[in-house]
Structure formats: C-alpha cells, structure tokens
Prior knowledge:
Chain A is of the alpha/beta class and about 325 residues long. Chain A is built from 13 helices and five strands. In chain A, strand 3, helix 11 and strand 4 (about 240-245) form a beta-alpha-beta unit. In chain A, helix 4 (about 70-75) crosses helix 5 (about 80-90). The interface between A and B is large, with 97 and 98 residues. The first copy, chain A, binds a DNA duplex (30 and 30 nucleotides) through helix 2, helix 4 and helix 5.
Amino acid sequence: MKETSAPPGTVPQGTPPPQSPHPPSAPAPPAPAALAAKVRTLAPSMTRSMQRVAEAVAGDPAGCAALTVTGLAGLTGTSEATVVRTARLLGYPGYRDLRLALAGLAAHQQSGRAPAITTDIAVDDPIADVVAKLAYDEQQTLADTAAGLDTAQLGAAVAAVAGARRTDVYGVGASGLVAQDLTQKLLRIGLIAQAHSDPHLAVTNAVQLRAGDVAIAITHSGSTGDVIEPLRVAFERGATTVAITGRPDGPVTQYADHVLTTSTARESELRPAAMSSRTSQLLVVDCLFVGVAQGTYETAAPALSASYEALAHRHRR
Amino acid sequence: MKETSAPPGTVPQGTPPPQSPHPPSAPAPPAPAALAAKVRTLAPSMTRSMQRVAEAVAGDPAGCAALTVTGLAGLTGTSEATVVRTARLLGYPGYRDLRLALAGLAAHQQSGRAPAITTDIAVDDPIADVVAKLAYDEQQTLADTAAGLDTAQLGAAVAAVAGARRTDVYGVGASGLVAQDLTQKLLRIGLIAQAHSDPHLAVTNAVQLRAGDVAIAITHSGSTGDVIEPLRVAFERGATTVAITGRPDGPVTQYADHVLTTSTARESELRPAAMSSRTSQLLVVDCLFVGVAQGTYETAAPALSASYEALAHRHRR
DNA sequence: CCCGGAACGAAAATATCTTTCAGGGGTGAC
DNA sequence: GTCACCCCTGAAAGATATTTTCGTTCCGGG
C-alpha cells in the first residue's frame, strides 16, 4: 500500500505552514483518546492473538508507541501480520498510523498529570521540580505585573525619559542591577543615562539635576533610604521623578511624580523575594525602554544597529 | 542499525545520541514539548535548508507528523537527507522519532489553548499593547527555557558549585548583570563567589583557580571572546567549568564541563535579543542558585536570614 | 476419518528511512 | 584576482520497517 498520508512526488496539499483546522475534530477513523474504550468495544470481535495486542496497546500506549511492528509482535508473542490486522480493526489504515496516534495519546496523558507547581519549593525537591516551579512563579509574576501596571503612569514616565536631557537611575542591591540594565539600554539608543548604586555619589549627582531631567528610583520595599535620598534631592531640584516600587504607598512615592508598581509575590526561605521582584522590575524597565525607543524611533533605530555592529567583532568565529 | 527506538523486552529509550564531541555533551533527551524552543535555539547553527525544514516542523507539527521523510522533503523543497539531518540536530535519533514526537506535540497543543497573538511590537503600538506583548514574550521565554533546560547538566553544575572552594562568574554586557546577580545570591548563602566583567582581571583571576573551584561563563552568543578566554584558562587549570549560553554548539562549550542552554526568542528592532536572553539567563541562574541553596541548606538558611536582618535597618520607617 | 473454514505466522514485496558519495557554491588564503 | 578548500546539498545506494501474500495449522462437524 502506498503511503497513506502524502504521496511523494505529487502535490497533496499546497499549504505548508497553515495551521490544520481544529473544528473538524476526530471524524471516525483516527480515534484520538478513546482508544481504551474502543479496545473494550471491539474486543469480542477479536481473535485471541489480536486481543493480546490490543491489550498491550491499551495498557501502555507510551511504551507501545516506542515499538516497531516487529517489537510489538515479539512482546505480545504474535506476528507482525497480527499486529497490523489489529491496527486495522481499531480503525487505522495500518500500524504506522496507530503508532502515531499512540504517541499523541501518550503525550496527552502525560500532560494530564499536572505537577503541583503551586507548592513552595522544598529542600528535597528534585531539580526538575525546582525548574518547573521557578519558571511557573516567574511567569505568574510577569502576568501580575503586567496586569497591575498603570499604563497612564507608564506613558507619562516614557514621555519624560524620551524628552529628558539626562536620566539618572538609582538602585542598590538587587535593584541596582535592574538600574544598570535600564541604563545600558537607554545608552544603546543614544540617550544619556547613568546608574548609581553608591548612595553618596548618587546624591552628589542628583544635585546637578534640574527641570527637564529625569530621576528614577528602583526599590522593591519602597523604603530604601539610600535610594530615596537622591530621589528627594532630584525632586527638589525640579527634575521629573519616577519610582519603580512594589509598595505604591511607601516613603519613596512622596518624592515621585510617577509611580510604577511592581508585583510582590510570596516568598519562601529558598526563594527570596528578590527573585520575583527583580523579574517584575525588569519587565517594568523593559516596558519603559521600549516605550522610549518608540518615542525616539528616529534616533533610536540607527543607534541600536550601530551598537549591534560595534559588538560584532568581539565575537569569535 | 537495529530498530532505533526499542528492542522488545528492554527499556524503551535510554539511547544516548550517536556522538559526543566532548565529555560534557548534553544527552539531549527526546524533547517532549520544547520543540519550538529547540528550533529557535538551534536555528542559528542550522543551514538554510535545515532551517526551512525546522520552520515547517515548528509551524505545523500536526501537518508534518502526517508526512513521511519524502513528503516533508518535497514540501520544504529539500532532500530526505536534509530532513534527517535536521531531525538529528534537534536531538532525535532519526526522522522516525522526530515524527513520533511531533505527533505527541500535535495532540498536546490541540488539547491546549490557542497559542496567543505573537505579533511583533510596532513603532506605533499603544503603551498598553507594549506591556502585554512584552509580558507575553517573556513568559514564553521562561516556558521555553524551562522546557529546554537539561536537568542532568543543571544538577551537575549545582553539585559543583555547592561543593566548590570558590566560584567565579564571567559575563560582559547584559550578561554581566546576570553574572552579578548570581554572585550576589551565592554570597548571600555564605559561598565565595565573584563576578568579573573586566576581561583582563577575569583572566588573571582564572589563573588562580584549581580543581575544586568552579568557573561559570555567561554568554548568549556563545562566542564572546572576553568570556571564553577566562573560562578556557579555568578549564586548563582544572577547575570545573560551566557555560550558560544560547548556543550549545558555540565555541564557549568546548571549555565547559557542563552546558546550560538558554532559549533564543525571535528578536525585532524594538525588542533586542538581549531582553529575552537576559530573562532566560536569569531563570537558569535562579535554578542554579536554588539548587545550590538546597544542597547547602545547613549553612544557607542561617546565612540568608542573617543577610536579611542586616539589611533591615537600611529601610526607613 | 475426512472436509471446510478461519486464524496465524513466515517470508516475500513494498515502502520508508538512513547513509554514502560526489557535485556546487561560497569563503578565506595567497 | 585566482586558487584551494570546506561545507552544504541532493541523488542514489543501502538498511529497516511495514504491508501483503500465501501456506500451514488447528478446530468442529459430517
């Protein structure tokens, strides 16, 4: 018999990438998930050998999917012909298609058992669980942050930075890295930006700010004195001030013209709050950056490609 | 060659891939659902023809699962050999197994929800859309990274760091911030760690490493000379070396005992690759950290609370 | 005891997958 | 600018897997 699905040289379907239609679900021949039921239904009409095969298939779809005709025949103590006959009886054109369906079924039921990722990370969690849980938590943090972000405030902050003479960013500890990340990006699109993690230098720099400049403070707790102080100075010098914080009611906001709220996820002993706050802050910072890049596209685009090219030589062949 | 998948009575899988270039080669277990991610990760190292095949496969898993080698080759305008080569590159023993995985994936996503809108960010997108798209993309990046992360390699890296005399981390540019992030965390649980972004200092420090020490290089491109060089030195001094890179076939891996792969998302003009690579790298680093914290819980727990308390009085009332 | 029918498996026949090999195109060296 | 080299690529040979064919065996009934 010829290949059931696609003739080699001909033009079976002229549509390569288009998604296959979902509405017309399983018609009749390819049973999607009701395989076990089908086996029970058809069992009476099967011969002994075929029943053995059907039983094996229904019992361990995943395992059988990994077997060839010969393998399955050997496993069930029958012959290849019997296996093919069974596949036919179950409604498939041949063993090949049964096997394909089997693989799908296996994947399906494997995804069925949802890992309890809502749990906290325990000391004895296997490493695979740690990965799953962390990824899940960070995804959750991102969703929360996006949902809680005030786009009006963000828009105002974007406009301020896009039109600023210079932008100073304050952050210490983990937030300091976020501050640097933002700074790096702004520099890449040709803006003048600087990150400060040294409180003293931050304050002395803040004094130089004036109207038209922007100061951004990043602090999860909203009460980090080392970051509030320079922001206060900048505020009093007339600069536009922005606070990125997880505590929109914290002290830092009293000197902030615009407040961007980051989300606060539950923390645990093994998962310090710094982790999710960092994720959240980075998303906010990314949004800010992209917004600014949009607003200054004329200059941002060439600056981006220039910096990209400048780095090209630093890569080995 | 005998049946690639499984002899009758024995274990189904467990077949390591054909060749391993170096001792630290990822076994690359048959990817279950991480296919799209894998395609993106490996795309840069593919040839044009192979990319066409990979694209078709990633674009329409269900459709491709129904095709034979010849059919897929015809559809993509390539040859059977190329299709098989692509399957190999994606980590499967041959096309047969890729097809099987494809069937599983198809069943998987048919049951799952619709894949969301994946439009690029445009210059004139309203700020709310920017937030939504960025959040979605970063979530996707996290999922891809988690799916593509080799837990065996991660476990090995965790063990190495947990037992290390000292740990050095190399990273420049955006990866430098990730390196600092990791370092900060490790310091917090009482380990000795240092981040280097100055290539010269990194090398001079690497010379001091010896067996029992760990060196970690972080580079998205996998070919950043400034980061490879210190890793090479550390490798030759006998330290355990780890590479965190988006290019598991890049130059950096030749000096790495363990390779942790980050995901590569499509980039656009307004969304530089650095953004998603950073997200991906951070997740990997977080996993590494939590793993190490688990392994050294006896000392990590008190160290964590100590550092927490030490910071408390830096917060304003 | 012999006959008819169905089940079953061995092996041939076919299709499919994998490997090998040689040509073509591009790149770096000189 | 030319040459040599290497890698990509596809055609075809070679190896495997699947399907079909066909003969044998096993029962139950006449």
